[in-house]
Design brief:
- With about 475 residues, the chain is α/β, with parallel strands linked by helices.
- It has three domains: about 210 residues, FAD/NAD(P)-binding domain (3-Layer(bba) Sandwich); about 120 residues, FAD/NAD(P)-binding domain (3-Layer(bba) Sandwich); about 110 residues, FAD/NAD-linked reductase, C-terminal dimerisation domain (Enolase-like, domain 1).
- It is about 30% helix and about 25% strand.
- The strands form five sheets. Strands 1, 2, 3, 4, 5, 6 and 17 form a seven-stranded mixed beta sheet that branches. A five-stranded parallel beta sheet has the order 8-15-9-10-11. A five-stranded antiparallel beta sheet has the order 18-19-22-21-20, with helices on both faces.
- It starts with a strand and ends in a 6-residue tail after the last helix.
- The structure holds 1,4-dihydronicotinamide adenine dinucleotide.
Length: about 475
């Protein structure tokens, strides 16, 4: 039997590995358990990091053709070397997962490779791929096993990761599909749909709701849909996919997608070379033995926790995609830090009201706090300040005039309640709003904060000025 740990973290995605590092930094004897051969989980191996590598590379490809000539840089028509692009993605993944392995070593965290199983309070089994089991004693267990691809409800689906793919297969296609049909107009569908559209695919997005990016601010999703339409994506909204069926053989392999209007009407079909299923993700608890151990799940299969991340059995905690809340790497990271602090006897806390969300398309979408729709539904009286990037000097200089910054502030107190940005670099700019909101700042605070000129961020300042009084440059 191995030695006793203070904390064992099962799963090494951003939630798990960050939790382990924080725990080790706080002086706890820490181990992680990971079933994959590399650390980092979905985010680093088959999610955020590889998709950002392809998003960036495909943006450069599109820019070389569409933006560089206008800037006086004539490079001729760019030629796609998909193999090299994929090699860049793979190298990016490798350097990131190696980085996590290095951080484990640096912080003296033991790494067990195998599937972790909760045997009960203070007891974890690790089963390797040969079926050999090691049992380890620990005072605390943190479940950070993340999520997996969700099916399409009511559809008999076989994801072969070649023709019918999840995000994993969509990051590994060996050629550019002529027609990519994306089921689900959420974050994954639009990020990966836009990658392949830039590389030459015809892309059709079939979405159940009447808008793309469901929970985003209405203004944002409307403008974003117009932008993506300009980039060549086609949308079928209010359309429920009821069937995905493989067709053809050999090189003629493809799939047929059947959908019907949500409001009622005749079904229609679309032929695709590749279908990307992006209808959400579900918590991953396979093999953990939670039922037997007595860990209670909720009605969505997520591990039930209290406000201190404690599950139904003492000394067992859970964080990240496997519990309720937005399935975002940074939410999991913050929960990882908080639970490590709680276990170490400190006051760990996550402010769920200030978790930024970013869609890494071109342009990016970034958001923090409440949307207009949420404020209306809650009956909150609010003010809106909006500033277009077309009126921002830096944006014009960089040929990035599309989009806007929008600040929502309480009508009486001027406290900023939400900030939404559509535009180049939105994912970086959103953080000044997040910091402001953490400190309960007002639109006036933001509008009176000196911003360097010329920067895209001045549009955020101007939107804040618009919410509390008037923008200068409009
Ligand atoms: P999602 O929940 O964002 O979007 C799924 C979409 O599929 C919804 O709009 C839904 O209405 C639609 N849908 C469901 N069933 C359908 C049907 N039968 N026919 C047509 N449409 C249907 O899920 P997605 O994009 O798969 O992402 C999964 C999770 O991963 C999300 O929680 C997301 O936040 C997270 N993620 C975040 C990223 C980021 O922050 N940049 C990047 C990638 C994923």
């Amino acid at each position: 039997m191995a030695e006793r740990y203070d904390i064992i973290v099962i799963g090494t995605g951003p939630g798990g590995y960050v939790c382990a590092i924080k725990a080790a930094q706080l002086g706890l004897k820490t181990a992680v358990v990971e079933k994959n051969s590399t650390l980092g989980g979905t985010c680093l191996n088959i999610g955020c990091i590889p998709s950002k590598a392809l998003l960036h590379a495909s943006e450069m490809f599109a820019e070389a053709e569409h933006a560089l000539p206008t800037l006086g840089v004539d490079v001729g028509k760019p030629k796609l070397n998909l193999e090299k692009m994929m090699a860049h993605k793979d190298a990016t993944v490798k350097s990131n997962v190696d980085g996590v392995a290095f951080l484990m070593k640096k912080n003296k965290i033991d790494v067990f490779t195998g599937t972790g199983k909760v045997l009960g309070e203070g007891h974890v089994a690790i089963i390797d791929d040969k079926g050999d089991t090691v049992e380890v004693q620990t005072t605390n267990i943190v479940i950070a096993t993340g999520s997996d691809v969700a099916d399409i409800p009511g559809v008999d689906l076989t994801i072969d990761e070649k023709v019918v793919v999840s995000s994993t297969g969509a990051l590994e296609l060996s050629s550019v599909p002529k027609h990519l049909v994306v089921v689900g107009g959420g974050v994954i569908g639009l990020e990966l749909g836009s990658v392949w559209a830039r590389l030459g695919s015809k892309v059709t997005v079939v979405e159940y709701l009447d808008t793309i990016l469901g929970p985003m601010d209405g203004d944002v999703s409307k403008q974003f849909q117009r932008m993506l339409t300009k980039q060549g994506l086609t949308f079928k909204l209010g359309a429920k996919v009821t069937g995905v069926e493989a067709t053809g053989k050999g090189v003629a392999k493809g799939a047929k997608v059947t959908y019907e209007p949500v409001k009622g009407g005749d079904a229609a079909t679309i032929d695709a070379d590749v279908v990307l299923v992006a209808t959400g993700r579900k918590p991953f608890t396979n093999g953990l033995g939670l039922e037997k151990a007595g860990v209670v799940l909720d009605e969505h299969g997520r591990v039930k926790i209290d406000e201190h991340f404690h599950t139904s059995i003492p000394g067992v905690y859970a964080i990240g995609d496997v519990v309720a809340g937005p399935m975002l790497a940074h939410k999991a990271e913050d929960e990882g830090v908080a639970v490590a602090e709680i276990i170490a006897g400190q006051a760990g806390h996550v402010n769920y009201g200030v978790i930024p969300g970013v869609v890494y398309t071109q342009p990016e979408i970034a958001s923090v706090g409440k949307t207009e729709e949420e404020l209306k539904a809650e009956g909150v009286a609010y003010k809106v300040g909006k500033f277009p990037f077309s009126a921002n000097g830096r944006a014009r200089a960089m040929l990035q005039p599309n989009g806007f910054a929008k600040v929502l502030a309480d009508k009486t107190t001027d406290k900023v309640l939400g900030v939404h940005i559509v535009g180049f670099g939105a994912g970086e700019m959103i953080h000044e709003a997040a910091v402001l909101m953490e400190f309960g700042g007002s639109a006036e605070d933001l509008g009176r904060t000196c911003h360097a000129h010329p920067t895209m961020s001045e549009a955020v300042k101007e939107a804040a000025l618009g919410a509390f009084l008037k923008p200068i440059h409009l």
